[in-house]
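Lecture notes, unit on protein representations.

Consider one protein chain, 306 amino acids long.
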Amino acid sequence: MARRKKGSPVHGWLILDKPLGATSTQALGAVKRIYDAQKAGHAGTLDPLATGILPIAFGEATKTVSFAVDGEKAYRFTVRWGEETNTDDAEGVVTATSDKRPTVADIEALLPDFIGEISQTPPAFSAIKIDGNRAYDLAREGEEVVLEPRIVVIDELRLVEVPDERTAVFEAECGKGTYVRAIARDMGRALGCRGHVIALRRTRVGPFSEDDAVTLDELRDAAAPENGGDIGQFLLPVEAALDDVPELAVSQQDAANLAMGRSVLIRGRDAPILSGPMFATCKGRIVALGEIEKGALHPTRVFNLG
């Protein structure tokens, strides 16, 4: 006899505005408890000192997490000049200092060097695995962590505010694998003044933005019996992460075949020219995600929403 899963079969996306100080795992756990959900995962880790968009997938939505993780991300972050730390943020120990302070002109002249495809060495305190161990665990144990540079893509990097000579506020739009802390560290080195992140907020992950976000306090308030307990209002559909993937409506018969993992022929005048990733729906419910090739949809993920 199969073991009964604990919790409720919740499906969909919850876009959390992660609070300061909480790890992504702690935030995920809190949301999972509020929804009493059987299964949940998050799309893209945020450091404890970071706030902002943490997309959380419930149930069948976990099958689409990779689409959110691979999507472009946007950040607003504050850099403190004059000190570099071993974590590249305010949690770390100062490892280098400088009396130099960059001018606005200095910073503006540097920004083009950090836009486009650039080589970036991730922070030693990061979630990257080395021989099965997280880099930050090795670093905390005092081991020397050596990470190889890799190519990342930064689409935009803007200076938006200079509150004082020691502080600058930036906005960035970048691809998967980019570390904002590394941007701050490398800008400080290039400017000869050193630097680290003192505030970081993620404002977008793929199709999810601050307009979609809800705080833990808002969730807890809504979950209270005296307020009606309506937390379903915050859930986005399973296919919300598939913003850039075309939708294909299929018949009930085709939906049944897709649910069994079988390919189905694409009918209609435009069928021969369709190709690439696509998700299928039947009567407004997602059925499968797959690839269209030679006039047929080949399912790679099937969804069971009960």
